[in-house]
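Journal club side-thread
Mid-discussion, someone asked how the predicted structure for our own chain would compare to the paper's figures. Pasting it here so we can look after the session.
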Amino acid sequence: MTDPNENLAPGAHMRAELDSQPEMWERAAGMTAEQALLPAKGQRVAVIGCGTSWFMAQSYAALRERAGFGITDAYAASEAFMDRGYDAVVALTRSGTTTEVLELVDELKGSGSSARVIGVIGDVTSPLVGMVDDAILLPFADEQSVVQTRFATTALALFRASLGEDLTAAIADARTALADVDPTLAGAEQYTFLGRGWTIGLAHEAALKMRESSQSWTESYPSMDYRHGPIAIAAPGRITWQFGAAPEGLDAQVAATGGRWVQHAIDPMADLVRLHRVALDRALAKGLNPDEPRNLTRSVILED
């Protein structure tokens, strides 16, 4: 049987999927019935995920608390503390087959916990769909590329809309970012990504995306912590990329090292889309196929 992907150019899936993000966000913003399944205001919530999903969980948790919806903790599924009286647990996973997520949900359901478990899942056929109390399905945002782009940001768009945010400007910013990418951004020796509040998760995700796609040297930190050691890595030919608002004077401190400061006056989630394009361009320039990154698969499934 002929493989339908056999003749596709390297990165073809990633390119199509990242370019579709504004459309995906519009769709997620309109999913009011699904948004109503997310934890109610005042509930104590844990959000779990692995890799990219964990970083989106961090952003959701910070946004939910900032909006006054209640205590919200984000955990890597392998390191979660579930004995803290949570009213609800949100499990975010593209594939719904990640071992750590399935094991944690199974333990929760078997422990007699009263916490309602909500799955935000890309693959409607995954085992997690039947394990959770409520499943929010985003099959339109699922991906063929191993490297996640649109599922992660679409889930975050859903979360932001559920908190009452208007995503109109973010969607417009994403379209602009996709159409206007500075080609010099893909040529740095090293990248450090910074964020504050909810954009710390975006910074961690940006660093992961660049590593996965192009095998690049990347780091990520809360912006205020960057001065406490990590700024030592800044130098000519290296980029420090800030998502959202920066601490006063940090841009000048980076410039004094000879490093390049990057900050865009757009919605930070849209700036992550710009980074996706840079990661793709960098991977292709290095002769890599980001749809099939080294040592990675679409889902981490551990053997018994």
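Post-session note: The longest strand covers residues 88-93.
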